[in-house]
Each structure stands twice: as C-alpha cells, then as structure tokens.
C-alpha cells in the first residue's frame, strides 16, 4: 500500500516545480465564471480553435482555460486569439497533468474537462455542467468503451474492474479517464487538484469519500479520438492508464482491507487442512 502513496506524492511535486514557468494569458472570459472549461492541449493547432469556440458556448458565465502542455506548433497563440485563458508550459508535464494545472487556476463552481484534440459541440458539453448544477459532484461521460469483443481492451477492462471493486457496477466503464466530465467545487476541494493527474485514483477517492458520482451523458469519444502512431507497435499511453488503475486498486485495498470490503461468500476456510 505504501508505494501507492509515494506515487501520488511524485505526481504532485513536479506540478509545483513547473508552476513557476507557466505564463497565463487572460482574454475574453467572464470575470466571475460559473463554469470553467479546462482544455489540456499538446500540439493541437488544427483543432484547438474549434474546441475553444464550442467550449465558450457552454454557459453565459464561462471561462475557458487552455493548458498548452509543451506545445511548439502555435496552439497557445491560437487559443489566446480565440479568447481562452492560456497557461503555457515550456516543457511537457506528462499525461493528464494539464488537468491539475487548469484546475488550480479555475475560478468556476463547476469544472468541465475536455481535450484539445476533440471538437465536441457545446450541446454535448452542457449536460455535464447541468448534472453538477442538479447536485452531482462528479459527472462522467456515460461511455463504457467497446465491450463486445472476445478480448476486451486492457483499458476498458481496467475501468469496469475498478468500478466493480468500488461497488459501483452501475457505472460500468464510465471513468474520469475519459472526457468530457465535470466536477463540483466541493469535489475539487475534496480530491485536490494534484490528484486529477491520476484520474482513476481521483475517481476511487471520490467514491470512497461519499461524493455523488453519476453517469451524466454519453459522448462516444472512442470514435472521435485521433489514432496516434505507436513506436514498435506498443502503446505507452495504455500502460500509463492501466498502471493508474492499479494505483487506484491499491488505494481501495488500503482503505477497505484486502478484500475491499467484500465478504468471503460461501467459502468455509475452517474446513481447509
């Protein structure tokens, strides 16, 4: 259980070191936003303008924060020209760290997360903010990934397994790993911005802390994601996500015991000799 704690600390400390090099550019956001739309982006010059444009339509009291994570293709400049508040990071901070950076800077009572490589229409983003307005603390994308395959994808399997372990099988494969999703300010205060860099761990803590976690609306992002070329046929992102789920499992076992709070069923261990 102790290794999981160390891994969480290691995720937070680089964030504090890099924060000094962020340059925030403020433009056309609402001065007192209700909704903060956070968009991490790394070299997404082709899609960032449309992503920001749709995000700005989510609410009349909206701010859009683009975290340009080590971009070198003009992503930051394009986002700023579209009216986003841009936090520019000179070096890549790592997968999902942009969510933590954006959350630290957000002013809204609702934090809505999407990605710079996805152009999701505003009408598909609003249901997540609406779910938080109705009392949800974590509003997830009601998308469980492809489940009809003979061999399920390791990431899809990890998401389903974690929710079962959390006693939330109703969530199926819904996960904070996927966008869009939204958090209440209460959820952010409970989880802390640093934990958002490891979405499965944040989700596990949210459930165990009694936050209201719901599947709010379905956006089939599996068909929208850009397929990136993979070196040597391997997918390093897959490994990162699976390891994050293992950290989440470790957290659950640490808090709920070796069987995660599940009983021993019909086993009669006293009969074993």
TrEMBL record:
Bias type Basic residues, positions: 1-23
Reactions catalysed according to its record: an NDP-alpha-D-glucose + (2R)-3-phosphoglycerate = (2R)-2-O-(alpha-D-glucopyranosyl)-3-phospho-glycerate + a ribonucleoside 5'-diphosphate + H(+); (2R)-3-phosphoglycerate + UDP-alpha-D-glucose = (2R)-2-O-(alpha-D-glucopyranosyl)-3-phospho-glycerate + UDP + H(+)
GO MF: glycosyltransferase activity
Keyword terms of this UniProt record: Glycosyltransferase, Magnesium, Transferase
Cofactor(s) this protein requires: Mg(2+)
Keyword field contains Nucleotide-binding: no
Coiled coil residues, start to end: none
Residues of the signal peptide: none
Protein name: Glucosyl-3-phosphoglycerate synthase
């Amino acid at each position: 259980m102790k290794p999981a704690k160390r891994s969480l600390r290691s995720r937070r400390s680089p964030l504090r070191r890099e924060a000094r090099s962020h340059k925030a550019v403020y433009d056309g956001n609402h001065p007192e936003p209700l909704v903060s739309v956070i968009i991490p982006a790394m070299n997404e010059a082709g899609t960032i303008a449309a992503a920001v444009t749709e995000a700005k339509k989510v609410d009349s009291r909206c701010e859009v924060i683009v975290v340009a994570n080590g971009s070198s293709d003009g992503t930051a400049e394009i986002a700023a020209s579209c009216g986003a508040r841009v936090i520019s990071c000179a070096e890549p901070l790592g997968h999902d760290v942009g969510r933590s950076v954006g959350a630290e800077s957000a002013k809204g009572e609702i934090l809505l997360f999407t990605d710079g490589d996805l152009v999701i229409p505003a009408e598909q983003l609003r249901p997540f903010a609406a779910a938080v307005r109705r009392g949800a603390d974590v509003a997830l994308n009601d998308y469980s990934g492809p489940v009809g395959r003979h061999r399920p994808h390791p990431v899809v399997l990890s998401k389903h397994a974690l929710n079962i372990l959390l006693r939330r099988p109703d969530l199926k494969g819904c996960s904070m790993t996927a966008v869009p999703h939204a958090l209440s300010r209460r959820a952010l205060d409970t989880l802390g911005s640093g934990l958002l860099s490891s979405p499965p761990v944040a989700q596990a803590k949210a459930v165990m802390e009694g936050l209201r976690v719901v599947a709010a609306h379905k956006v089939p992002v599996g068909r929208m994601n850009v397929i990136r070329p993979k070196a040597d046929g391997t997918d390093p992102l897959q490994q990162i996500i699976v390891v994050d789920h293992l950290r989440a499992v470790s957290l659950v076992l640490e808090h709920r015991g070796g069987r995660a709070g599940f009983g021993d069923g019909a086993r009669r261990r006293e009969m074993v000799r």
